[in-house]
Amino acid sequence: MNELEAYATKLFSLLDEEKFFEKAGLFMDRDIMKKFLMETLEDNFEKTGSFELHQDQLSDVIDRTNSYIIEETFCDLIKTGDIRPVGLDENGDFLYESVVKQKK
């Protein structure tokens, strides 16, 4: 799987040249994205014998990374009590509110 690592390293070098991670913001993490990218490349290799990305797969990896980080952030905020669910909207999605904590 040295070719797989080399392909991923080259892709990340290109992203670094474009300052992708600097521009991507709070909901992007290099290590999490690499994990999802490697899963995609391995899946491609198993299905086609080539791990090269297909059209839209990089966008899918980026979206998957964003979604994962946002979900983890919400879970952390709920666990710490910084937000709480207060209802559902018309689409069945939870609505949240910020919890103001009193200083002791």
Please explain how this structure is put together.
The protein is mainly alpha-helical and 104 residues long. 62% of the residues lie in helices and 11% in strands. It is built from 4 helices and 2 strands; from the N terminus they run H-H-H-H-E-E. Strands 1-2 form a two-stranded antiparallel ribbon. The relative contact order is 0.11.
Please tally the helical runs, counting DSSP H or I stretches of 4 or more residues: 4
What would you call the quaternary organization? Answer: single chain
Instruction: List the helices and strands in order.
Output: HHHHEE
Stretches where pLDDT falls below 50 for ≥5 residues? Answer: none
Spatial order of the strands in the main sheet? Answer: 1-2
Sheet bearing the most strands, described? 2 strands, antiparallel
Compute the gyration radius: what is it? 18 Å
Shape: elongated
**Approximately what portion of the residues adopt beta-strand conformation?**
5-15%
User: Roughly what percent helix?
Assistant: 55-70%
Topology, pairings included?
Elements (H helix, E strand, L loop, with lengths): L1 H16 L2 H5 L5 H19 L8 H24 L2 E6 L5 E5 L6
Antiparallel strand pairs: 1-2
Helix pairs in contact: 1-3, 3-4
